[in-house]
Amino acid sequence: MILSFFLKEVAFISKSIEEIVDILLKNYKLRVFEDGDPYRVLIRTILSQRTRDENTDIASANLFSKFHTLEEVANADVEEIQPLIKKAGFYRVKSQRIKEISQILIDEYHGTVPRDINELLKLPGVGRKTANCVLVYGFKEAAIPVDVHVHRISNRLGLVNTEKPDDTEIKLKKVVPKDLWIDLNDLLVQFGQDICRPIKPQHDRCPIKDYCDYYKEINNN
To answer: Which of 17, 94, 129, 150 has a CA that sits 20 to 30 A from residue 49's CA?
Structure first.
């Protein structure tokens, strides 16, 4: 009986997710990052930590306008990298990490980015969100990167009930059809930046509020 209820609940959420994604696809255009190059996606995601997308764009463009390859980055002095990525914040730590990762990729992975999440997680400073971003945007592998937007929106919608992003990833993988995994992060990030903001979400403009537990809760009080 419990298993039957659980399966029905999963099926209901999966159908809701399909409808939500369909609506979001009509409102947002899927983006392409760094031409899908796994190394550039990896570095860009590291640069994006604790900063805004526009700062990441500037830092990434600056870095790769001077150093075009993984080898060039690995051979660069940290002092050369720092001013290029300063806009992304925490540039001293990030520059050291970028150089270190680049050298590890040369020494241990023949100059290529591994296509396996367990290997990606061995790289310094690479957590599950970054690793999953590389899989999705660098290799077009089915994965669900969970950042603050995905975590917040998934809980507001009622798709999951979690405290930590890693738990959100696990739960989402159980209820989201696998063919939707690749698009989910990009759509929810854009939606989170535009409408479903951390503070004062734009309910009057929200195209999926009918699916949202958070919206229903605040309007019933």
So the answer is: 17
Q: Are 155 and 171 in contact (CB under 8 A)?
A: no
Domain residue limits, the chain: 15-31+144-220, 34-139
Give me the pLDDT at residue 4, please.
41
In the chain, which stretches have pLDDT less than 70?
1-13, 34-35, 221
pLDDT of residue 3: 41
Task: Tell me if the pTM is above 0.85.
Answer: yes
What is the model's pLDDT at position 220?
80
- Torsion-angle region of residue 85: left (phi > 0), alpha (psi -120 to 50) or beta? alpha
CB count, 10 Å around CB of 129?
A: 21
The class level of CATH for 15-31+144-220 reads mainly alpha
Q: Which residues contact 110 (CB under 8 A, 6 or more apart)?
A: none
